[in-house]
Amino acid sequence: MATPYTGARVLGTNAVISESFAKQLTDLPAELLEHILCFHVLNHVDICKVSCTCKRLHDVCHGRGKVWAHQHKLRWPRLQRFYQQNESYDWLKEFKTRHMVGQQIRRTVESISKRFFTEVPCVGQVLGDSFAEIESLGAPEHFCADELLEILNSDKRKCLTLKYYAKKILYFLRQQNILRNLKVFLERPPELQSALEGAVLVDQYCNPLADVSLESTSAQIEEITDKVKKNLRVKNATHPSLRASDCFVLENLEFQRQVICALNAVLYDQLQYKGNERDYYNPLNSYIHQVLLRRTGIPISLSVLYMTLARKLGVPLEPVNFPNHFLLRWCQNQRRWASDDIYAYVYIDAFGKGKQLAAKECENLIRHQVGADYYSAISTSELLLRMVGNLLNIGKRGEGNEKSYQLLRDSLDLYLIINPDNVQYLLLQARLYFHLGIWPEKVLDILQHIQALDPSQHGAVGYLVQHTLEHIQHKRHPVEPEVKKRSVPEHRDVLYSVGLIMKHKRSGYNCVIYGWDPKCTMSQEWINTMRVHQLSKGADQPFYNVLVQDGTCRYAAQENLEPHSAPLEIAHPEVGRYFTEFSDTHYIANEELQARYPEDIFTYLTQDEDTLRYCT
Prior knowledge:
GO terms for molecular function: DNA binding. By secondary structure, the chain is of the alpha+beta class. It has helices spanning 19-26, 30-37, 44-51, 55-60, 66-75, 91-116, 128-135, 141-152, 160-187, 195-206, 214-235, 253-270, 288-294, 299-312, 363-366, 380-397, 402-418, 423-436, 440-453, 458-476, 524-529, 575-578, 591-596, and strands at residues 274-275, 296-297, 318-320, 327-331, 345-349, 355-357, 501-504, 510-517, 543-548, 553-557, 561-563, 579-582, 587-589, 603-607, 612-615. Strands 10-9-8-7-11 form a five-stranded antiparallel beta sheet, with no helix packed on it. Strands 3-4-5-6 form a four-stranded antiparallel beta sheet, covered by helices on one side. Strands 1-2 form a two-stranded parallel ribbon. It starts with 18 loop residues before the first helix and ends with a strand.
């Protein structure tokens, strides 16, 4: 018989147990007690109280039992995939650790806004010491990621600033893990480097918040393989590929032809895969999970898919780094690897629906002649360099917005992991970081590496070193941000407040105000380029910093803006940097923005058929 503990005895929230009821309860079998304590309405606080009631219930709620296993699963369902079903765990210890990590993560994220609000905005940018704080916790990475995801999945319209920085930290943590995996991948012998796995790692690094994995990608490719086998079975029910494993090569060229024919029929006729000629420079064309989802891509991404499928069915295709149009080659010689003769191969254009070309026919794709070297097979690491190089060029072609800068940063990171001593791209990376005003210490490390590799770059390196040191010095003595008050006479013409949802009268775009100036503060060159003098009040009127629905940031004249008649949320990645909540009519500034514009707390006055008027 269990001996009741002294003091309050609790089962569930605020439920007091009498001694007679406690005795009846504790007389039940342990299995039944566990079943009762796993009832979904009981949370971890209830279980803690129950376990303090008496020794009998304390023993039932032991750390390795079902009760705490259930609480852990109930509280953090995403974490269950990290535990083996047949293993024994101290679930109470796991619960405490995860709970403690969650609290520490939240404290760190909450502190970031105050520390880094004045930094230059850039997607994915949070200074290194914040990440070091999280890494110093020594907690399992999946605990940290789970807490960050919990923040991101909370109420859509609230805690926007917390979500903004949680997203940046999660982005960084996942990228660091992917980089580690990529380095391990590149250390393998070339014959063990799968083009598909490499493409997935590139995809994951550029899309760290997306659900991309080698397992899910392989499963989708397996489904396509089954369709090809089904097609093949109709043509040749005894084909060797129908019963062979993945690791085999068809020796008979006719069997290989049958596979290629079935592959083309399924991939291009049945599944309607095609080259994306209309939107060729869209980065989505390079991401393998998007190629599978949208069934379109560019030559190199479609070649990776085609080659992977062909090899699974016994046809050993090889990647060819043909200029401006990636190809595959298929040896027509029975002694496949013996010949260096470019005419011993058929070249397959995966972008052109699997069209087969003779060597010199390939030149028609690019409309000029090339040497025999361009028909050679390349390694997986060379293929990845070509793939990342494409993304890098797309980033360079970008409009100078946050998305193009992030793509440029990500592709540079990947390129320099694969080819760390490329001086051209190291210099580009240093210039990019310098331009964005981020990680000056890392810029100095890059420049030192460049100087060691190529002393002839001392001119460019010296210039960047000098200005980077000036930037570091400036950071040590930061200038306090200007506080703008409406009560100041020179601000009397400013009509609109930060947080208001506006519409541009001429361009028609929707936006939210996150800052203002009583007069235009841009350079004369900008004023001339934007034809500000053509406005009725020219530059001598308030101008507003606005976040636009399309993801851009603009500087708009007061006479071109009007309050939106039906305020709506602005889907801009930087909204959380300035605002903490959307309140159906406007955004509520976070503490940092309020400190800059302390009198910009607006009140609704009146509404007529033409406009909404606000005052402070």
